[in-house]
Amino acid sequence: MNAHALGLLEFPRLLHLVAERAASAPGAARVRALAPSSDIAWLEGEHRRVTAVRALLSGEPAWAPEPVPELDAAIRRLRVVGTVWSGIELAGGAILLRSARRTREALRDERRAELVRAVLASFADRMTVAHGDEERIERAIGEDGIVRDEASSAMRRIRRELRASHGELIRILERAMASLEPHHRAPDMSVTVREGRFVIPVRREGVRSVGGIVHGASGTGGMMFVEPPAAVEFGNRIRELEAEELEEVERILAELTDAIRPLRDGLADSLDALAEMDSLHARARYAIHFGCTACELAPAQRGFSIRDGRHPLLLARGGDVVPFDLAMEEGERTLLVSGPNTGGKTVLLKALGLISTMAQSGIPVPVGAETTVPVFDDVLADIGDEQSIEASLSTFSAHLKNLSEILRGATGSSLVLIDELGSGTDPQEGAALGWAILESLTMRGTTTLASTHLGQLKELASQVNGVVNASLQFDAVQLAPTYRLIKGVPGRSYGISIARRLNLPADVVTRAEERIPQGERDMGALIERLEQKEEELASREREALAMTEDARSRIASVVRREQNVRERERTVEQSSRQEARRYVLEARQEIERTIQELKTKGDAASDEAVEALGREARRKAEELAGKQANVLQ
Predict the structure, then answer these.
(1) Is the pLDDT of residue 393 over 70?
(2) Strand pairing category for 480-487 and 467-475
(3) Alpha-helical runs (H) found in 414-480
(4) pTM for the structure as a whole
(5) 554: Cβ–Cβ under 8 A, 6 or more apart, which residues?
(6) What is the arithmetic mean of pLDDT over 305-314?
(7) What DSSP designation does 195 have?
(8) Pairwise CA distance, residues 404 & 392, whole Å
(9) Do 201 and 224 contact (CB within 8 A), yes or no?
(10) Confidence of residue 259 (pLDDT cuts 50, 70, 90)
């Protein structure tokens, strides 16, 4: 993509806004390295992955990205036999292994949606799990990179002896300080370290009475730092133990490094996958925060339709951002937007450019539903005043330099954004140049969005196929753009209206109006009537949409009520069936009890009568059950 255009659109600033939402430095670096791509298949996959991570963030069980250490250089060093990782690097290695293990477990958790697991399966597959090495490093190295006492039996012994020797040495030095004559004592009597040895402060005149070794003096020379004779032996022993400790630390670090050296490729793959997951996480958080939605991606030649688009950088500033709709049909190649200089045309151009480059970088865009974003092979732009004093270029010359590069680089799949085409020179010559430039771009099939305030260019749409006039509605009362794009209607300058609104003397405004050729005045009046008609039609469309939504809401309400009634009927029916079954069961149980009682009291003849009576009672009970079932049906 054209770096100059990306700079004009402030694309790096947008990447910074997204990168701020990453949880790690490697993840943020991945976001800042994003660049627009024209590979639609890759882009669709990337947007699916962002959507899946967004589902992870809002779904159950809760998910958050794991820490990602900065170990790229350290992992590359593992390829060199004999290299040893520092304690901090090994601690980072343990973090990397733990993060890879936990991420794989989270991405394969069957409680998550199957689609989410499927989309992110490749990340789970790239996670290297070595639980044994992970635990081994954690037992030996603290998170601060310091080798633990438990790293080896030798380290445990050395550290124990060091602590004991330190303690005894401090006691010896404290006794030495306490035995000093008052006039030999320093104002601040405390054990300190000089030249790697533990010493006490003594006034210069008291050094001879203490003896031992002098390891330095104060800035004024009045205070000497002395290691008493009794402390020298313990000091030497501490030096020996420290050397042993350093040797054991180096042995442990080398041993742990050699243990994970065979994992170097897996570690590199895990680190890469974790950083990419955090990049997706940052983009998903950005999408959630700004209400971005998934949109369809399509080849540039098919046209596009942006619904409720919002300028991403204005959105980040906070406050109300007026959404815009912008669409170009398949046969439309150039949209020429005219109107007042304060009408918001530049904002519209930059918004389209940023939305396109964001979508082509795998970043969700702030648009509404049913949006189709085009995929361009390049974005070229001439926006703003780029006068260069160093290059001795005037504003007009700078514009021409940009336009020359645009004409050399634009293809039928490119997006070209030109702000205030034809400005900076004589209006007639500017219009002629603008006409030729737009005609050339249109004929080659380039998607072009250009703004202008030159009236002559408005006639281009009637003479060149693929060129469409458009205007951004302007509120002449509030002197502010509404950001509503009206296709098919060229814009008015509103210069006279604004002058009148700002209380320019009435006679001056009247004379100015009289200076405008009658044809232009008639054209202005016609455009005004078209704008009014367009607004009237848009108002009716909004009313129709509101009525449609109301009707849909009412229908949905009726459907819900009908469903509730049916649900209640099913509940009553089920309850009645259960009650009928219970009643029949109880009746049968009662009949059986009665028969048994009669049998117990009666003779053989009466037994037969009882059996007959029982059969009749059972038959009646079955009939009753059948009738109740029929009633429920």
Answers:
(1) no
(2) antiparallel
(3) 427-443
(4) 0.75
(5) none
(6) 92
(7) T
(8) 17
(9) yes
(10) very high
Residue 326, classified by CB atoms within 10 Å of its CB into exposed (0-12), middle (13-18) or buried (19+), is: buried
Task: Tell me the CATH class for 18-151+255-290.
Answer: mainly alpha
CA-based nearest residue to 396, from 385, 406, 408: 385
- Written as one string, the DSSP assignment of 581-599 is HHHHHHHHHHHHHHHHHHH
Say how far apart CA 525 and CA 385 lie, in whole Å.
32
pLDDT of residue 195: 80
Which fold, 296-516?
Answer: Rossmann fold (3.40.50)
Q: How far apart are CA 202 and CA 185, in angstroms?
A: 6
pLDDT at 603 over 60: no
Q: Specify burial of residue 290 (Cβ count, 10 A radius: 0-12, 13-18, 19+).
A: middle
CA angle 154, 160, 166 (to 5 degrees): 130
Alpha-carbon torsion, ordered 121, 126, 132, 137, to 10 deg: -120
pLDDT in tens, 442-456: 999 999 999 888 878
Backbone angles phi, psi at 333, to 5 degrees: -115, -30
Residue range 344-358: mean pLDDT, rounded: 92
Closest CA to 370 of 415, 327, 330: 327
Question: Mind spelling out the 3-state secondary structure of 198-257?
Answer: EEEEEEHHHHHHHCCEEEEECCCCCEEEEECHHHHHHHHHHHHHHHHHHHHHHHHHHHHH
Residue 77 in this model has a pLDDT that exceeds 90: yes
pLDDT given at position 560: 81
| Predicted pLDDT of residue 631 | 47
Please give the distance of CA 597 from its chain centroid, rounded to a whole number. Answer: 80
- For range 190-204, the mean pLDDT: 82
pLDDT digits (tens, 9 = 90+) for 554-579: 888 888 888 888 888 777 777 777 77
Of 511, 485, 517, which is closest to residue 339 (Cα–Cα)?
485
Would the pLDDT of 613 be above 70? Answer: no
Distance separating alpha carbons of residues 510 and 75, to the nearest angstrom: 78
Alpha carbon distance 102, 104 (integer Å): 5
- Residue-level pLDDT at 527: 57
SS3 call for 190: coil
What ranges do the domains of the chain cover? 18-151+255-290, 153-235, 296-516, 564-632
